[in-house]
Amino acid sequence: MTASIRQSLAAAVGSRHVITDPDVLASRSVDHTGRYRGRAGMLVRPGSAGEVAEVLRICCDAGAHVTIQGGRTSLVGGTVPLHDDVLLSTERLCAVGDVDTVERRIQVGAGATLAAVQRSAAAANLLFGVDLGARDTATVGGMAATNAGGLRTVRYGNMSEQVLGLDVVLPDGSVLHRHSRVRRDNTGYNLSALFVGAEGTLGVITALDLRLHPTPSHRVTAVCGFADLEAVVEMARVLRDVDGIAALELIDARATALTATHLDVPAPVRGDWLLLVELASDHDQFQRLAEAIRGARMCDEPAVGTDPAAQQRLWRVRESVSEVLGVDGPPLKFDVSLPLAAISDFARDAAALIHARIPEGLPVLFGHIGEGNLHLNVLGGALEREDELVGAMMDLIAACGGNVSSEHGVGTRKRAYLGMTREPADIAAMRLVKAAFDPTGYLNAAVLFGPS
């Protein structure tokens, strides 16, 4: 990076918000898993949409690549710089506005954490529809950029269902303000939808209007144990359409064995596969849950929580899984989106594939089974032998009718497999959109489908 670019950026955002310290840049050039590393020339922290616009204009004119960073919780290298980039952090765009309790919405900066949004919503007796285990660090701008889902997707949908409006700085430095106070705005193109899920390739989201939901007054949580995965899938088909469904989470008993050993969080019921179910509504849900799971092929009586403390203990079983996946080093991760009918066969064939290629590898499967959105992690040093497994696993996912990406995005690590689920004409159309917004291709250039 030339001194003139640094000087121009310092004039735009303030000298203390342009950082070139090698240690800081090195720490910002590795992803959340520690698997992927890149190289950055400087870190810039704008404090407003206007400053973001000026940063992009300077970098575009200078031919400098820009990589956008929020909470840096990407699992697919989506925030790793590859071109000696300028890192544009949204961390200072963290304002959280007042809750509009009439319209049930809130305006926040893209750098606001999910936890901050949840706290503001809860204070107004409302809730935000997307929840993730990384809630304390994940930013809502990054979540919108990847169209994140999470633990409540079966009830409220992904981020695309929560975004009512946004501010975006386009690659040429112009600012798009797309906000409307009406509930149905069908005027022209739905540009907000274009930027949600674009993984930062079309612009920098700087602020969002987010939908909030009433907080249910009654909630019941249960963990059920099953001997075989097909029985879990059968139960999931039933439960995902039950009124009041709020969560539907699959948990591999191989994962709970780890949580019991390392976190003293054992499985509350017997079974090779666990299903966490939660119903929530404005009236008691216990009887509805009992009726919904009656006849299920469970190994044991379910563990049920009707008060907040008991529910929190059951949720701890699910949320502890992510905490133990890295106890023996970073796992090899696959974000799998599958038809429900294919889940059982996929789990069996994936385990066989892993054992054939990496005998010491331990497969752990968990996730949002109501949508067929599952997370397959391979533990036991599998990351060091990634090349032996990834291509074959992607072929298996495709053979099962699955998708290359569900809620983590494509990032840089899955772009070679985009053609699994997108036709050439589809990819060509996306490239045309990218070229229209960013003719030089300098913004998040390595993400999604990479350079032309």
Automatic annotation (TrEMBL):
Cofactor(s) for this UniProt protein: FAD
Limits of the FAD-binding PCMH-type domain: 36-215
PROSITE patterns cross-referenced by the UniProt entry: FAD_PCMH (PS51387)
Similarity field: Belongs to the FAD-binding oxidoreductase/transferase type 4 family.
Range of residues in the leader sequence: none
UniProt-listed InterPro entries: FAD-bd_oxidored_4_C (IPR004113), FAD-bd_PCMH (IPR016166), FAD-bd_PCMH-like_sf (IPR036318), FAD-bd_PCMH_sub1 (IPR016167), FAD-bd_PCMH_sub2 (IPR016169), FAD-linked_Oxase-like_C (IPR016164), FAD-oxidored/transferase_4 (IPR051264), Oxid_FAD_bind_N (IPR006094)
Name of protein: Oxidoreductase
A single BP term in Gene Ontology: respiratory electron transport chain
Name of one Pfam family that matches: FAD-oxidase_C
Molecular function GO terms recorded: FAD binding; oxidoreductase activity
Keywords annotated in UniProt: FAD, Flavoprotein, Oxidoreductase
Keyword Metal-binding tagged: no
